[in-house]
Amino acid sequence: MIGHNIIFNNKNYGILIHLSDNNTLSSNLVFNNEQSFGAVGILLWDAKDNTIEDNVLIDNGYYIGGIPFTNYIQRSVVNNSVNGKPFVYWAHRTSGTLASNSGQISLFNCTNIVITNQTLFNSSIGISTAYSSNI
Fold first, then answer.
1. Is 11 domain-assigned?
2. CA 65, 81, 39: angle at the middle one, nearest 5?
3. Which residues form the domain of 113?
4. In a domain, 135, yes or no
5. What is the 3-state secondary structure (H, E, C) of 62-127?
6. Which of 96, 134, 101 is nearest to 119 (CA)?
7. Are 63 and 39 in contact (CB under 8 A)?
8. Per mean pLDDT, which range of 61-70, 76-85, 94-103, 121-130 is the poorest?
């Protein structure tokens, strides 16, 4: 478990999980970490079946990705925030609306989703989609 840490002012990522599965990231405070392509607080790349819960990111964001398709699948992503607002990670949703108040939005394998009236700032990516359609 990676938990109960304060992680800040790193030159690349706050937390990098790469080619590692079934990990738990819980109750970390992550802020002011920089990477050339954005402020990435927590990066999961080619890492699946992880539990990500109760983390607070400030002026940083999440990046979840990989090849193949299965590396986007996480066991649980709940109660995380980006800049004081919820980090929304939806997987395998067939419809829904995100109407306001998100800190960052990540959609994986979703269809027929509406995203509207968001103010997203100081994150690695405001809105990301992967293997999704009709967004």
1. yes
2. 55
3. 2-130
4. no
5. EEEECCCHHHHCCCEEECCEECCEEEEEEECCCCEEECCCCCEEEEECCECEEECCCCCCCCCCCE
6. 101
7. no
8. 61-70
- In this prediction, residue 67 has a pLDDT band, given cuts at 50, 70 and 90, of confident
The answer to whether residue 24 is domain-embedded is yes
pLDDT digits (tens, 9 = 90+) for 45-57: 999 999 999 999 9
φ, ψ of residue 71 to 5 degrees: the values are -75, -5
Number of other residues whose CB lies within 10 A of the CB of residue 134: 10
Do β-strands 40-45 and 56-58 pair in parallel, antiparallel, or remain unpaired? unpaired
- Which residue type does 64 have? I
- Count of structural domains within the chain: 1
Distances (CA, A) of 112 to 49, 98, 107: 25, 11, 11
Tokens of 110: 């979703």
Give ∠ CA 89-57-10 in degrees, rounded to 5. Answer: 125
Question: What is the distance between the terminal CA atoms of the chain, rounded to a whole angstrom?
Answer: 34
Select from 99, 102, 55, 59 the least CA-distant residue to 74: 55
**Is there a domain that residue 82 lies in?**
yes
